[in-house]
Amino acid sequence: MARKAIHAAGGIVVRGGARPLVAVVQRSKDERWVLPRGKLKRDENPVAGARREAVEETGHRVRVHEFLGAISYTVRGRPKVVQFWRMQAAAQPSRDVSKDIVAVDWLPLAAAVRRLSFALEKLFLLGVGRRVLKRRRRGARRKAPAAKAKSRRRGTGKGRTRKPRRAVRITAARGSATRAERRSMLARMLGRLRR
Predict the structure, then answer these.
(1) Regarding predicted confidence, which is higher, 123 or 153?
(2) What is the CATH number of the domain that holds 55?
(3) Structural domain boundaries enclosing 99
């Protein structure tokens, strides 16, 4: 009989301006460097758990964006599945880090990959890291023109143009996996672990 899986969640937490930095944290229990993540509480929503863990381990408030994927491995004979989301951190910390974290480093992507202690996390960050940073840059570019357009619209009231709501929804849906897709992916991963 397969043992019950451990579920955890976390984030690829990014902050900074022109040269974005990725958070890596050092655990006190073994002094290893990992991505901000942790076990979910009983009946906790994975997105809420990922946000909670990122805030506790980095000390920064975060805004959660799209689902990036999951990694799975075995811990003392039990399968563990860790889901990750892209997160944007506030510029300044809002609280102290939790007692099980010794240090938080904000590093460029390549340095963050090198700093991580586990090969699986290194591969995961290497695989999604460039995509995370591109989406972040694209989002920053969209905000600047939107602010200019808003100020122009307020001025005269003439020539107001709005994107149809449908176009906005389609764009948002393309950028992230749906809940059904995430469930399907997790079910496949858990199925592989049980074999």
Answers:
(1) 123
(2) 3.90.79.10
(3) 6-135+171-194
